[in-house]
Structure formats: structure tokens, C-alpha cells
Amino acid sequence: VILLVLGKMFCKYVGSIWFIMSVLVFLCLVFVWMIGEGRVLKSPTINVVVSICDLSCSNFFLYMSALVFVPSGRLGFSSLLVLQDKWEQIVGQDSTLEIFQHITLMTLDTIMKCAFSHEGSVQLDRKYKSYIQAVEDLNDLVFSRVRNIFHQNDIIYRVSSNGCRANSACKLAHDHTDQVIKSRRSQLQDEEELEKLKKKRRLDFLDILLFARMENGKGLSDKDLRAEVDTFMFEGHDTTASGISWIFYALATNPEHQQRCRKEIQSLLGDGASITWNDLDKMPYTTMCIKEALRIYPPVPGVSRELSSPVTFPDGRSLPKGIHVMLSFYGLHHNPNVWQNPEVFDPSRFAPGSSRHSHSFLPFSGGARNCIGKQFAMNELKVAVALTLLRFELLPDPTRVPIPIPRIVLKSKNGIHLHLKKLQ
């Protein structure tokens, strides 16, 4: 009832029916309960993990970001090259490609290598497709559960067909996470591997957790480890895949901006044989286009938060401290009172020196609970866009216009289909 009231109240200010739709995304809370507690619980264990992460994250994500553009043959850059090579083999002049699934495998490959010491290629190993499918199923099942009043009861839901499917998907996702942790623990039993670890400039995320110690001197339990790895595994690939896919679609439907980005990248990188850390600050127009695409298609359309203090709205109505509210980033980004002509793709909104409210653009949320991997994600987006535009021209498929649907991440009901034309 509170959520419906909030929907009506905010719709007056947001001016978009999408707010009411995205209210349903409060399923984020349910999803966290299903797949992992991660950074959201106020327990002593999680507080210790958050402290570890907060102390290490600036260095850790700086390190991860650097790994994204290590030359071919290593880590994130190689993951993108595997994807592009695959695209070259399967696309023709007149064929279209559903890009979301391919990009999801690429971003999972990247996060596995950068954060979890994974060796090999997720994109070339068919077993990882089952994990991708499990995450997709959980997105749909949680959304479906929220709309069914009878399924709010845990007992009823567990014996329902959807509940059984959700339990099966959760088990598959947890099994995948357990295997990642088990594999890394096994590697760390080897003295040679430990010596390599000591020589590393920075520990990756999983190593930080495995070497972490609680206040009582004990390491994190398997349950706590799984919760953190579940959260990073999901947030580290699915949201980024959504962002990259919708950016490609936005550029495909705005060819003049796509071409201007390509010229900027060509003047900076030439044939794209290498890309450096410093290059990312030298593509301002491409960055503007990425941000504008994230405004129109925010990877996470909404989040739920507990009010830490009362909130009073312009009309005098207020909400008390302690209740949960839904924040619609999609509604915010499409609000004509905040953005002029919000449905128009206009990168100049993000031109250097342009003025806007500090909280009018929140693709990575904001405040103390914002995305701790936003710098890594933004750099990955830049690398993916830059190197893809050097190899392909992106063209829309007018017969398959994507239909955005709010899930935990923003997806398309009918996929995102593009023509990919290889550049000479």
C-alpha cells in the first residue's frame, strides 16, 4: 500500500508512468534475499567486510580498471577481443545479431579475470552459459513474484512452480560461486602460487576476502564469502552488460553521433592496436555519448532505500524515518522538469562546463550507498565503445526495436538486435 501511495505521489513530480512500473523493482530487496546478502545487511560480519572493501576499494578498483586495458593476451582487453573476433565470424552484411547475450558473457569473463583470478575464457566455455541463464531466470522470477500477492508468503512460494524454479536457479548460481571460491582456495594451497601472490602489486577482490580476518581473528565463513562473491559476481557483469548493450543501441540509432565518436577515437588510437590509461581522459565526446546513453537507459532503473530521516515533499506531505521507499532512476532521467526533451539523445547535456543538479544523473546511484565499482564500470564502458567502433559500424534493425523492461537491471523484452558492419 505504501508503495502504491508513493507511486502516485512521485508520479506527479516524475511525470512518467515508468515510475509506477519501476516501483516493482523494489524486488531488489527480495533478490538480495534469494541470491546473496552482500553489502546490504547490518550484521557484524558484513560490517567488517564493508570496512575491508572500503579501505581497499579505491586501490582495488584502480587496479581492476588498469587490467581492463592491458594489451591483448591478458585480462579485460583480451575478453573484448574474443567477443569482437567472434562477431566477425558470425555476422554478415544483411544479418542481425542479438548482442546482449554475447556482451553478458564478455563482461562475466572480464569480472572473473579481474576480480576472481580466473584463468581461461568464460566466452569459450559453454558451462558458464548455465550461470548466465540462472541470473536471467532470477531477474524474471523475482519480478513475477512481486506481482503475485499469494507468492509474498514464503511457504506458498516455495511449493509453487515458480518457487521451485527460483530455488533451482539460486542453487545453480550458488554452486557456481562456491566453485570459484573453492578453486581459488585450492590454488592458494600451492606455495608457488603464494609466491606469485606476494609479488602482485594489488590483491584481487577474492584474495582480499580470503585473507580477511574478523575481529575475533577468524577468517570469513563460507556463507559470508559466498554472499560477497555473489553480489560482486552479479553486479560486476549484468549491470555492465546492460550498460554496454544500450549504449551500442543508442549509437546505432544516432549515426551522426556514432561517426563523431569514431573520428575522435581514430584520431586518438589510430588502428586501436593499443589503448592506455591516459587515453580514456582524451575522448570527451565519446564520454558525453556514453553518459547520455546511460541517462536514457540507466542499467539499474531503480533502487530501494530505508529513510534515515523524515522527508517532506514540496506539497507539504511527508514520509517518516524508517520506512522503505523506491527511487526511480529511470523516472528521474526521463523527467521533463529535470531534463529538457528527455527522450531526445543529446550528448551536449554532458559537455564540459554544462550545469545540472548534482543528483539529476544517477546511473550509479549516489551518496554513501553508491556503486563502489563505478570507476571500473565507466572505464570498461569506454574501452568497449572505443575498440568496437574502430572495428564495426553499428546499425539498428528497424524490424526489431527493443522494448525496455524494468528488472533488477534494464533489459529488453525482445532482445537488442543490431546490424554489425565490419569496417575496412
TrEMBL record:
GO terms for biological process: arachidonate metabolic process; icosanoid biosynthetic process; kidney development; lauric acid metabolic process; linoleic acid metabolic process. Its cofactor is heme. It comes from Mus spicilegus (Mound-building mouse). Keywords: Endoplasmic reticulum, Heme, Iron, Membrane, Metal-binding, Monooxygenase, Oxidoreductase, Transmembrane, Transmembrane helix. Heme binds at C371. The keyword Secreted does not apply. Belongs to the cytochrome P450 family. The chain crosses the membrane at residues 13-36, 48-70. InterPro entries: Cyt_P450, Cyt_P450_CS, Cyt_P450_E_grp-I, Cyt_P450_sf, Cytochrome_P450_Monoox. GO terms for molecular function: alkane 1-monooxygenase activity; arachidonate monooxygenase activity; heme binding; iron ion binding; oxidoreductase activity, acting on paired donors, with incorporation or reduction of molecular oxygen, reduced flavin or flavoprotein as one donor, and incorporation of one atom of oxygen. This is Uncharacterized protein. Pfam families: p450. It is found in: Endoplasmic reticulum membrane. GO terms for cellular component: endoplasmic reticulum membrane. Its main location: endoplasmic reticulum.
